[in-house]
Amino acid sequence: MKIIGLIGGISWVSTADYYKLINQGVNEKMGGLNFSECLIYSFNYADIKKNNEANDWDATFSMLLKGCQFLKQGGATAIVLCANTMHFIADRLEQEIDLPIIHIATATAAEIKKQGLKKVGLLGTKFTMELDFFKDKLINQGIEAIIPQSESDKDFIHTTIFEELGKGLVTDETKKRYLEIANRLIKEGAEGIILGCTEIPLVIKPEDLAVPVFDTALIHSNAAIEFQLS
Asked: What DSSP letter does each residue of 117-183 carry, written as one string?
């Protein structure tokens, strides 16, 4: 079994999900008392959020590079960034650390392609929705991503990710608004919905929508398992 390194704390909620999903997945495939051999470097989310809001991605890069180096020194043979937004600097990190980074958007694009979909809705932080790092991986597979057009909708998603979901808080009101936003994207032609923030599965479940739902945390965890056991 290959050792993998998880960069977490962005947020701790999704990091716990990754740890659980990866260990459960390894055990399902190997049985017995076999579980994932992994390392975790968990950040203080407040430091990451402060950098990103100031558009200081170099500072965030330096922080994550330190974490990746720590994991590499511990024996990790690949890195898993336990958050969608952090993949904005994934390619740069991969080049610097000289280890493969299992890319969440690449794995998600592969799953969407398996279902033959050409147009999907993308929900996530404003960074994930508005920057190109996630959408470009989809385009490479012939998949178009659409995002909410309303600034109030984008602001709502972004704010609740940090102020509610990232703390493990879920309300009926927030869930209702998320579903309304997702259904508007479906009316605009989305054949599936990407939960492009690892906390959004707290409020949107596959059974909530009439189209396929792509849980990026689950997809990413499965890609990590596949690498680990390859």
From this structure: --EEEEES-HHHHHSSHHHHHHHTTT-EEE----HHHHHHHHHHHHHTGGGT---HHHHHHHHHHHH
Dist CA 141 CA 136 (whole Å): 9
Cβ proximity of 81 and 59 under 8 Å? no
- In sequence order, the β-bridge partners of residue 194 are 122, 214
Span 130-174, pLDDT tens digits = 999 999 999 999 999 999 999 999 999 999 998 898 888 889 999
Q: Tell me the pTM.
A: 0.91
What are the structural domains, with CATH classification, of the chain? 4-103+219-229 (3.40.50.1860), 105-215 (3.40.50.1860)
Sequence length of the chain is 230
